[in-house]
Amino acid sequence: MAVLDQERINRLKQILKWHPRGMTISDISTQAKMNRNLVAKYLDMLLISGHVEMQVVGAAKVYYIARTVPVSAILEFSSDLVIMIDRDGKIIQVNEAVLHLFNGKKEEIVGRRLDEIREPFIHDLPVDPERKDKSDASEFVAEKTCTIRGEKHHFRIKRVPTAFEDGTQGFTFIIEDNTAQKKYQEMLEINEAKYRGLVRSSGEAIIGTTPEGRIVSWNPAAERLYGYTESEVNTRPLTMLAEETRYGDIDTLLKGIMQGDCIQKRELRMIGKKKNAIDALITICPIKGEENAIAGASAIIRDITQEKSEQHMREHEDRYRKLVEDLNVGFYRSTGDPRGRFVWGNTALLQILGFPSVSDLQGINVVDVFFKPDGRKELIDELLKSGFVKNHIVHLKKQDGSPVSVSVTALAEFDACKNLVFINGIVQDITGFVNHRI
User: Fold this and answer.
1) Is the separation of the CB atoms in 301 and 225 below 8 Å?
2) Is 31 helix (H, G, I), strand (E, B) or coil?
3) Which 3 state secondary structure label does DSSP give 279?
4) Best CA proximity match to 100, nearest among 79, 116, 72
5) What are the helix and strand counts (H, E) for the chain?
6) Which fold has domain 202-303?
7) Measured distance CA(122)–CA(127) in Å, rounded
8) Which CATH code is given to the segment(s) 309-437?
């Protein structure tokens, strides 16, 4: 008996490809230089497997290369895992994707029953060959997670009832490996959770809006800054955080967002729930969705009210210093605590107290320039009573320890809790006048 081999099969298929109009067995035998009976046997095998087609023309059989693709060839084009099982639970076909995933050989899998396969994933495929009821023949989809060679995989399994050419029934399992998608989804969920955690723990107000400017997210820092809870602002317009005369500023920002602009560090005057003014530094950027469409905006807002107040105070002090620097009368500003620190003093004050520079003056406590230990306390007590003293005679010490008598006119500066914060004063040297009287 002749041995059937793949090389001869391939040669016969190639000859048929060269003759698309078809060939008889005799023609093929002559062309291939093979025994006619052997050629007939090979052609029968190729006909059964679907690689060739045959048409009877008169008394002759004419063979053509198949115009259809065999099922086995189609399976190899699929990136999904495909396993075909007969009604007895025996595997009759698998594609290359199955062999690659499980690092196996076809002869180790094909022809064996599911319960004979050691690989748990294949062994546990959802089919019970002993059951013959209709529910067992139904099509269904399931998801399954398992570990293969130490790596976790996620699968989507579709079981399709299948009728084979010999009339028997079975199943075809089409198995999609969703591992990459699952990992990507898990990564997105982790990143989203981290982002939400960062937003909620941020010390700066973070507000999310729709493209039209309606508030859709509101972190705890925004609640602390504006005084509104998240439920109070949800779906309300962002303009609610500005005075009516400033609505245009918000609208300008939103127009820029709709054009795809990211607006960095824009100063904006806003307003809280208690109608308190808030100087804000806002950075607002678009949030883009599918096809790069603007899906909303995210605003990060920093409260710079205190900074603006301090800046205003510094500018006020600078102007004040320029006005008094060249006067012959000493001007000073000090803290209001019991010992006190000089914040600033003009040139005349330095001359009165005998200090070479303001930094030298700032290096000592105010209480140390009073001749009497309780001299500063007496001055502070007067200020706490009326907030203002005029022509108060005080005996001080210069840097070298020599005495100097001065007339002090001072104004107290209190905070919201009525605590003495600063003292602003005018000092006039009256040492000569006091000595003359003595």
Assistant:
1) yes
2) helix
3) strand
4) 79
5) 16, 17
6) Beta-Lactamase (3.30.450)
7) 10
8) 3.30.450.20
Specify the CATH architecture of the domain 6-65.
Orthogonal Bundle (1.10)
**Half-sphere exposure of residue 134, counting CA atoms within 13 Å on the CB side?**
0
- Listed in sequence order, the residues at least 6 apart from 355 whose beta carbon sits closer than 8 Å to its beta carbon are 361, 399
Helix (H, G, I), strand (E, B) or coil at 35: coil
Q: Kindly report the CATH class assigned to 71-181.
A: alpha beta
pLDDT (tens digit, 9 = 90+) per residue, 104-158? 888 888 888 888 888 888 888 877 644 444 444 566 788 888 888 788 888 888 8
Give the H/E segment covering residue 11: helix 6-18
Measured CA to CA in angstroms, residue 27 lies from 24, 156, 175, 306 at distances of 5, 50, 45, 100
* Residue whose entry in the numeric block shows the structure tokens 């000073």: 332
User: Measured between alpha carbons, how far is 82 from 171 in angstroms, rounded to an integer?
Assistant: 10
Tokens of 86: 């007969």
User: Which distant-in-sequence residues (6+ apart) come within 8 Å of 318 by Cβ?
Assistant: none
Provide the residue count of the chain: 438
| Paired sense of beta strands 277-288 and 60-65, if any | unpaired
For residue 218, how many C-alpha atoms fall within 13 Å in the half-sphere facing its CB?
Answer: 21
Task: Give the H/E segment covering residue 108.
Answer: helix 106-109
- Report the 3 state secondary structure along 173-199: EEEEECHHHHHHHHHHHHHHHHHHHHH
Rg from Cα positions in the chain: 47
Quick: pLDDT tens for 253-270.
888 888 888 888 888 889
Q: Which residue has the tokens 């998801």?
A: 143
Considering only CA atoms, which of 48, 143, 58, 125 is closest in space to residue 85?
Answer: 125
- Domain extents in the chain: 6-65, 71-181, 202-303, 309-437
Q: What is the pTM of this model?
A: 0.41
What is the Cα 358 distance to its own chain's centre? 51
